[in-house]
Amino acid sequence: MANIGFIGAGNMGSAIMTRLAAGSHKLAAFDLDTAKLDILASKGIRSAKSLVELAQGSDFIVLAVKPQHLPSVVEQLRPELDENKRIISIAAGISLSSLAQFVDDACPVIRVMPNTPAMVGKGCSAICFAPGETRITQEDKETVQGIFQTVGTVHLLAEKDIDAFTAVVGSGPAYVFYFMDAAIEAAVRLGLPRPVASDMVKTLFSGSSTLAEQSEFSPVELREMVSSPAGTTIEAIIHMDRMGVRGDFIDAISVCCERSKELGKTD
Questions:
Q1: What is the pTM of this model?
Q2: Which of 30, 44, 218, 265 is a Cys-bridge partner for 48, taking CB atoms 3.0 to 4.6 Å apart?
Q3: CATH fold of 3-158
């Protein structure tokens, strides 16, 4: 059992805390928005009156704040940090080296990239531990993994791979919602009422995702099952290939990865 403090009670921080509340960890939260803390308090999560109070009572401190706010938050925490504390940052684009610099290497730092489906327990998170960090024990690593397993699956990655993870998985929900929106617009264009189209498309994506997860077949094989010879589906697939949709989508993810690298250089 660990004492875990969260700084930031936004969508992601609240989602993780709410699911952790069912376990044995002792949780505390700090946020400038006291209304968010009141909601968490109703779920058994203690509200800290200040950053200092939260840090003093926490073994693990999760920084669930926007990247631009992180340096000032850590500056206020710094006097309370020592080798017995562990900093976990879910702020996008802030490297392990920058985190270590912010805390003056007073304690170990851990970088995590979750994605928004964590809000419904279906997330996918990447965890990066600094190589050669001897102050982090195996028990620490298991605790960190356990925190994020409450909101989905976890992958341990080297930091060099975090930009690729960000481009494919971190930003991935936006791509899915983009295609969902396009499918809804197509349905409306073809005469279906928008509420009906929206419900059908949501079911389409949910059902297809579940099928892909549970099936022994690859996505390519599943697609081929729907694409009957000389049928309607293959016409749509050929049209998308002719228009370069697949290549453009792959290129879009590559552009996202490059942007992630750029942001990491300026953190």
A1: 0.90
A2: 30
A3: Rossmann fold (3.40.50)
Beta strands in 74-225 (DSSP E): 86-89, 109-113, 123-129, 152-156
State the alpha helices, DSSP H only, in 103-171.
Answer: 138-149, 162-165
Average pLDDT of every residue of the chain? 95
144: Cα separation from own chain's centroid: 14
Domain definitions of the chain by residue range = 3-158, 170-265
Helix (H, G, I), strand (E, B) or coil at 50: coil
Segment 18-34 mean pLDDT:
91
* Whole-angstrom distance, CA of residue 143 vs CA of residue 146: 5
The C-alpha atoms of residue 9 and residue 75 are separated, in whole angstroms, by 19
Sign of CA dihedral 199, 114, 79, 82: positive
Distances (CA, A) of 75 to 53, 60, 101, 189, 258: 14, 17, 11, 53, 29
Q: In the predicted model, what is the mean pLDDT of residues 51-72?
A: 94
Confidence of residue 264 (pLDDT cuts 50, 70, 90): confident
Residue 265 has pLDDT above 80, yes or no: no
User: Given the DSSP bridges, would you call strands 60-63 and 86-89 parallel, antiparallel or unpaired?
Assistant: parallel
* CATH number attached to the domain at 170-265: 1.10.3730.10
Beta-carbon contacts of residue 172 (< 8 Å; ≥ 6 apart):
115
Q: CA 140, 142, 147, 153 torsion: positive or negative?
A: positive
